[in-house]
Amino acid sequence: MKQFLAAFALFVLSACGFQPVYAPANSALAAGGPITVEPIRGRSGYMLRRALQQELAIGLPGVTEPATLNVVLSEGLTRLAFKPDGAAARSSISARGEYVLARSSGAISGQVRAETDFSVPSQPYGDIAAQTSASDRTMRELAKRMVQDLRLQLMAD
Fold first, then answer.
1. Domain range holding 131?
2. Which residue of 95, 124, 128, 136 has the fewest CB atoms within a 10 Å radius of its CB?
3. Alpha-carbon distance 131 to 48, whole Å?
């Protein structure tokens, strides 16, 4: 009897159009869309790639054929202010991304920059957590600027 009820429940759910949330679908987001973002080295590169995939999920204007986005990332930490004991009080994470969007109809390239300032906490491991958080915010901002730049270039064509 339990098997019959389970089969009946599956039949009813499938008849109403139910689809599990994590099931593969034929959407552009599930298939990766027409734009593939190549892996970028390092932890910050991983965060940038993830942010780019989210930003590019809806696509770019005029890009219907498969395209590949290659990014070269450079990131730096600058200490801006110091406490009387010599410890850092304020720091900045700056990043530059040089990109090339390659597609069959040609390539588009450019570079964008982003920077995030942050206060350094007095706890020993607080600096590491603050740097990581600032780096993540910088990668999200860099991804937004990169996609905006791509959109502007594509609309100008």
1. 29-156
2. 124
3. 15
Q: Is 98 exposed, middle or buried (0-12, 13-18, 19+ CB in 10 A)?
A: middle
pLDDT for the residue 32? 45
Asked if the structure places residue 33 within a domain, the reply is yes
Is 22 among the domain residues? Answer: no
Spatial distance between the Cα atoms of 80 and 77, rounded to a whole number of angstroms: 10
> What residues does 107 pair with on adjacent strands?
102
CATH number at residue 128: 3.30.160.150
Whole-model pTM: value is 0.76
Q: Is the dihedral of CA 57, 70, 131, 142 positive or negative?
A: negative
Q: Does 2 map to a domain?
A: no
What is the C-alpha separation between 31 and 39, in angstroms, rounded? 17
CB 136, CB 47: distance < 8 Å = yes
Total count of domains within the chain: 1
The answer to whether residue 116 scores a pLDDT higher than 50 is yes
Query: Would you give the end-to-end CA distance of the chain in angstroms?
Result: 65
Q: CA–CA separation, 52 vs 143, rounded Å?
A: 5
Domain annotation covers residue 127: yes
> Tokens 């204007």 sit at which residue?
61
